[in-house]
Amino acid sequence: MSDQAIDKDVPEMNLADDRKNEEPKISHRKRNSFKNNLRKYWAVLALITYIAGLGSGYMLWGSSKAGNGAGGGKAASGEHDDMGALFDQVNPPDGYELPIQYGNFAPRLVAAGIIDYAGFVKLYQEIGFPLSEQQIAILSKGSNDTVVFNKENQHFLLNLFWALGLANQNKILTEGLMMRDGKDKVVNFASTGGWTLASAPVADLYASQPIIILTDEQQKRLEEVAAGVYRPCCDNPTHFPDCNHGMAMLGMLELMASQGASVGDMFEAAKYVNAFWFPQQALELAVLFKTSNNVEFTQVEGAQVVGKQLFSGSGFQVVHQWLAKNEKLDQVPDGGGSCGVK
User: Fold this and answer.
1) Which residues, 6+ apart, have CB-to-CB distance to 205 below 8 Å?
2) Mean pLDDT of the chain
3) Is residue 174 included in any domain, yes or no?
4) In Å, what is the CA distance from 324 to each residue of 46, 84, 182, 277, 314?
5) pLDDT (tens digit, 9 = 90+) per residue, 198-207?
6) pTM, two decimal places
7) DSSP letter at 333?
8) Closest CA to 121 of 134, 107, 136
9) Residue 99 included in any domain
10) Average pLDDT, stretch 272-276?
11) Phi/psi of residue 183, each to 5°?
12) Per residue in 229-273, pLDDT tens?
């Protein structure tokens, strides 16, 4: 494909909102205009370069749609099968196994009042997904089972790890961006004020429990990954866990770090966990990778999948617009993560 054709396919993009992400802790402070403009131009150039690169390969997959003529029905069927295969990569039918065990953190959350056991159980009865025997055991007794994410338990694990991230003592919560407006305002975030399954005031529970104590090396790995894992509901990384998905990801990464997981292990886990929490967005990324030199979702490094360029709110919007413009979204189902306990 020629440079002219590539330029035609590259969507116009405005990354002004990215400035919130570049310097989230100084949103109320006067900015250095020249420095911010320079960063913005580099960000624009990087994204244009990335998507321009995709332009040369986006017709490699699904190209039969345009070229089959009378065989269009077969092409449509093939595309549907391709989309199903992609979705099985994004949300593996057998789930995704993390290299960690539950241990006893859940009963400790219940004992400390972070989780109101009766209220937690009632919630899942009300939404039509009563807790399984395994899930009840995890909450009440702890478990040596390996943590496995799947379509059936992803919501349970979202709330479970949300509670862990919210309550565990870690300097990401006590010294990081969550404290930028002072301790008195920390309950104003969705990840704090939105936690309604506690039996005590959230302000008293926030970062109050030494449930997972990390070594300096483990903390270093946690902070590296937390700074690089984004979510498409906003432009904030996990080290600013102001919504439920960010706080849950923090809790999960803390548990992984404590059990010896490497940086690569944590990024890879975040790739699949985010995909269960945001299946539509992850599937669109899979389509993007597939249309770029026929790369499978399973082959892409976790850090790239969950990074700012593709999986932040503003980054994903660019991806979505490009896919829509190039008619790649016909088979992508609607859906995404909610930022409440339900």
Assistant:
1) 112, 113, 114, 166, 167, 198
2) 81
3) yes
4) 21, 19, 42, 22, 15
5) 999 999 999 9
6) 0.78
7) P
8) 136
9) yes
10) 98
11) -65, -35
12) 999 999 999 999 999 999 999 999 999 999 999 999 999 999 999
Residue 156 covered by a domain: yes
Of residues 146, 151, 159, 134, the one with CA closest to residue 95: 151
Cβ pair 340, 162 in contact under 8 A: no
* Residue 242 domain boundaries: 64-342
SS3 state of residue 149: strand
C-alpha distance across the termini of the chain, in Å? 47
For 162, the token pair is 């949300």
Average the pLDDT over each of 10-24, 225-239, 295-309 and give the range with the smallest value.
10-24
Per-residue CA distances from 182 to 63, 173, 178, 292 (Å) = 54, 12, 8, 45
Q: Which of 129, 171, 120, 133 is nearest to 152 (CA)?
A: 129
User: What is the distance of C-alpha 268 from the center of its chain?
Assistant: 11
pLDDT digits (tens, 9 = 90+) for 55-92: 333 333 443 333 444 444 554 555 567 889 999 999 99
Bridge partners of 311, per DSSP, are none
Domains of the chain: total: 1
54, part of any domain: no
